[in-house]
Amino acid sequence: MSQATQADIDVVSEGRIESVSGPVVSAVDLDARMNDVVYVGAEGLMGEVIEIEGNLTTIQVYEETSGISPGGPVQNTGEPLSVDLGPGMLDTIYDGVQRPLDVLESRMGAFLDRGVDAPGIDLEETWEFTPELDVGDTVEAGDILGTVPETESVEHKVMVPPDSDGGEISAIESGEFNVTETIVSLDSGEEIAMRQEWPVREARPSADKRSPDRPLVTGQRVQDGLFPLAKGGTAAIPGPFGSGKTVTQQSLAKFSDADIVVYIGCGERGNEMTEVIDDFPDLPDPQTGNPLMARTCLIANTSNMPVAARESCVYTGITIAEFYRDMGYDVALMADSTSRWAEAMREISSRLEEMPGEEGYPAYLAARLSQFYERAGLFDNLNGSQGSISAVGAVSPPGGDFSEPVTQNTLRIVKTFWALDADLAERRHFPSINWSESYSLYKDQLDSWFVENVAEDWPETRQWAVDVLDEESELQEIVQLVGKDALPEDQQLTLEVARYLREGFLQQNAFHDVDQFSPPEKSYLIWKAIETYNDEAFDALEAGVPVEEITAIDAAPQLNRIGTQEDYEEFVEELQSDITEELREKY
Amino acid sequence: MKEYQTITEISGPLVFVEIDEPVGYDEIVEIETPSGEVKRGQVLESESDIVAIQVFEGTTGIDRKASVRFLGETMKMPVTEDLLGRVLDGSGNPIDGGPEIVPEERQDIVGAAINPYAREYPEEFIQTGVSSIDGMNTLVRGQKLPIFSASGLPHNDLALQIARQATVPEDSAEQSSADHSSGQGPREDAAEDEATDEPGEDAPSEGVDESGGDLGEGEEDEGSEFAVIFGAMGITAEEANEFIDDFERTGALERSVVFMNLADDPAVERQVTPRLALTTAEYLAFEKGYHVLVILTDMTNYCEALREIGAAREEVPGRRGYPGYMYTDLAQLYERAGRIKGREGSVTQIPILTMPGDDDTHPIPDLTGYITEGQIMMDRDLNSQGIEPPVNVLPSLSRLMDDGIGEGLTRDDHADVSDQMYAAYAEGEDLRDLVNIVGREALSERDNKFLDFAERFENEFVQQGYETNRDIEETLDIGWELLGMLPKTELNRVDEELIEEYYPEESEESESEEAVGVEADD
Q: Strand locations in A396-430, DSSP E?
């Protein structure tokens, strides 16, 4: 948190506890504003003011409240819930209120105790600051003053805080500084350090918001190929348990071509977060080859950690993302899962005895969700640079029923929808993204990028694949009734082509070293190889070759193995000529 | 300690008491009825002049004159290694007629969350000896893998089989300790680490020695065995007897701690039972170095109790009347599984729940599935076919499988074999619907092979009986025997080199001959 240690807290006012019910505590005689951070009880548990009624202030507490009793003290800091922003956030794992988990471990051991506070960024650590401006230059809010090498992948840009009035630089020095030391002085008397504070529930300002025009390349064929997400776009991944939400989110965190990744584990499994903590330092970033952790900030509030901190972890994450966006970076933010976040809202709301909306969720659910997703986008920053936040939220609908409030309210906002399908997951079709239910509204605005950077006929090839898959699902209904062999030969062949599209293109092995990342060029070639098979096979059929013979050629099953080939270009070329040769021999 | 005789309201499991000194949230309360009976409860809501108390043993016999004592502390579990071999009731009191338990420590039963940063990622293969689990949904140390069952299905038999057979094969344990310096490791080192980790802990090495002793004895195999914590919530006396008898018969009781809340015990007590069990498990695992397997049955009864209390408190209900915080509440139980860096032991959880109406979208299995690392699904159709254990592998899943299997852990072909069998069995299952309409003759040779595969998969791979203990080699070999029914070209999930190594050559021909008979009509 922003408060360095508890000793430093400026106590604005003090009240006393009136009642305790789970994470909700009421206090009397407390002079507080909405959303002020307060410390509750003798142990000083952190909480936030969420309701004021006469002399009674209601507080949600971010830590376990066992043993807290009425009569205890409540101290108000007079500050809203905010995060520390500055170098040192990458390669770090935080809890829901930005306490670094490694620091917490060293202070209280393997189990999370309470009443321990720690600053979000190390106040002692020093950073090498290189100015980009000189004395006499005039700066405004948001301007970049200089840089700090934060990790091997990311150059951290030190900015004038967005609430500054700006002015002329009266002193600026290079050298080693910690985050609280003044590095730049302005003639107005303002002193600027690397560390900024920002209230999490408020979006950081920007100059303008634009329409996204570049894709966030994910390296996942089904996503890049059929349902692309734009840099600055929003996406939802709903799916029942076991359908692969987390694997999909983690693949995005690993392989997408963002500069910065903020991964929020919101109310999910502890072991999953451990997996990320274990894996990411060893995995290379596909763009730079440096460890993935060097561009990643993790926020872990596992399901058994206090529920109020789960409510805030999403805001903590997006505020950190906005800070890097301000530097001009493309940030990808994953929230796994927004349903747990919504449930935290519901739990607190029900403790407050608010009038429930649909399924017990508070009536402001839709508003909160849209506020969150609206903080994503492609922005012109105050300092003239352009940065983006792509937000991807996993949704865990109860019973896999997409008609529930969280899924529905999310779908009204996001423009890319990756529907996960338990049925596909059961037959180990991964990523289990259902190709007939999913959609991307960015498809058209991103086509020009794919045409320019990958292949001229990218949109046409995609359309061809979509058509074949559509036809297959229609034919499957008939097959369910009469069996495959009752279909005309050309339709049988279509089914065969569609099968290769499913198995060779849509499916991708997240655990195979090569297959896990498929650049768009490779995805395109797989399409092309299957298209070649399609064209040649239909030619053969027309020439009178029986469909059994066409489908039995030896080369065809190789279509499913392109994904795992490192030298895929050569492999595809050879495969295409093998297929052509084998089929043409038959007539 | 202050005593009050100011009860204002008694409603279901709740008692409201007027107080003049503040009482802490979650604190433990003793209520003495006029007849002298002492009941325990917990503060659910604390205001400056009134508290709501939930009474574990039921409110029968409490009247407004009953005296209420606030003990000034939250609920604690007295823990010691001597608990092994004991049978306790749902509130932690011995019911086996054995000696008084002398606790070494008293630990808060609401466990603190493990810092994700301090966790060790679970990847040590546990061999349960059950093919459908080992082969297809592998369990690893520190995982929480529930059994989703339904009334009338033999989930207890499966749970007992796992408790009896579960072991970590020696070589895999060694392998993973080589991979992870803080894993199993040489036991002496680990004991030293632990001693330095926790000064004041007088006999950590003793515990380690004992679990090391298990390893040496090797009752079943040369692998290491588990201490079993059994937490029963609302099961019938008959079921309870079955469990205890089986534990006694197999000698498992001496490495077990049993907590029994029976069907006619107060429902509210079910809130406490799993927490006592897990607190004991954590103590044995993280302070005494045991590998602990926790079996909790039946989680459905636990959730019913949660709903009962929610209703008594007149809370706004969530789905189907269950409280909105059920996810958080369940997570606080299930997440108490895992491994911790630098500590010897582990907590592996197998909760059992019965799905009301066989419906896996019911809130109980649904929320559980979102927290646990997979699920083992019992199937009514397989059960009526006489398959033992009737595990339907298709909706089953183990999320931690991928890192717990493979070369050095199980076998290099494990992942591919499992994937391929999943795909093939799923395809066979699909075709069964079609067969019902058009008959087998109308299907192609390829389709018929998949149908046969699905048949044999159920009857030879899944079917094994509750007394059979198959090691992982045997399980995978059966898998290859079945995959041999399919032509090599259909094995698109298996690496080509592995096909060369394991594909049973002779069976391909014999199988295709078999299929010819069916297919001749085409």
A: 416-417
- Is residue A214 in a domain? yes
> Dihedrals φ, ψ of A218, to 5°?
-105, -15
> Residue A210 is which amino acid?
R
Indicate which of A248, A355, A426, A481 best probes the interface with B, i.e. most B CBs within 10 Å of its own CB. Answer: A426
- Specify whether A428 is located in the same domain as A481: no
Residue ending a domain, among A80, A103, A134, is: A80
Range(s) of the domain holding residue A493: 458-584
Is A277's Cβ below 8 Å from some Cβ in B? yes
Closest CA to B146 of B299, B332, B280, B322: B299
CATH number at residue A175: 2.40.50.100
A54's CB contacts (< 8 A; 6+ apart) are none
Query: Residue-wise pLDDT tens for chain A (587 aa)?
Result: 444 344 455 777 899 999 998 888 999 999 989 889 999 998 889 899 988 999 999 998 888 888 888 989 999 988 898 999 999 999 999 998 899 999 999 988 888 888 788 888 999 999 999 999 999 999 999 999 999 999 998 999 999 999 999 999 999 989 999 999 999 999 999 999 999 999 999 999 999 999 999 999 999 999 999 999 999 999 999 988 778 888 888 889 999 999 999 999 998 888 888 888 888 888 888 778 889 999 999 999 988 888 888 889 999 999 999 999 999 999 999 998 899 999 889 888 887 888 888 888 899 999 999 999 999 999 999 999 999 999 999 998 887 888 999 999 999 999 999 999 988 987 788 899 999 999 999 999 999 999 999 999 999 999 999 999 999 999 998 888 887 888 899 999 999 999 999 999 999 988 888 998 999 999 999 999 999 999 999 999 999 999 989 988 989 989 998 999 999 999 999 999 999 999 999 88
A245 & A350 share domain: yes
ipTM over 0.85: no
User: For residues B431 and A427, is the Cβ–Cβ distance under 8 A?
Assistant: no
* CB–CB contacts below 8 A, A to B: 231
CA distance linking residue A182 with residue A76, whole number of Å: 28
- In angstroms, the CA B35 to CA B331 distance is 39
The amino acid occupying position A173 is: E
**How many angstroms separate the CA atoms of A108 and A2, rounded?**
20
pTM of the prediction? 0.86
Domain boundary among A44, A64, A80: A80
Same domain, A252 and A370: yes
Mutation target for A interface from B70, B110, B327, B486: give the one with most A CBs within 10 A. B327
Residues A520, A409 share a domain: no
CA angle, A139 then A140 then A145, to 5°: 50
Helix (H), strand (E) at residue A482: helix A458-482
Contacts of A6 (CB under 8 A, 6+ apart): A39, A44, A117
A 551-570 → B contacts, CB under 8 A? 554, 557, 560-561
And the tokens for A328? Answer: 């001009």
How far is B347 from chain A, CA to nearest CA, in Å? 12
Question: What is the count of structural domains for chain A?
Answer: 4
Q: What is the DSSP string of A382-398?
A: TTS-EEEEEEEEEE--G
Q: What letters, b where the CB count within 10 A reaches 16 and e where it falls short, cover B117-142? A: bbbbbbbbbbbbbbbbbbbbbbbbbb
Give CA–CA dist A454/A461, Å, rounded. Answer: 12
Regarding beta strands A13-21 and A73-80, do their DSSP bridges make them parallel or antiparallel, or are they unpaired? Answer: antiparallel
d(CA B225, nearest CA chain A) in Å: 23
Q: How many helices (H) and strands (E) does chain A have?
A: 15, 26
> Is A110 within the bounds of a domain?
no
The residue type of A400 is G
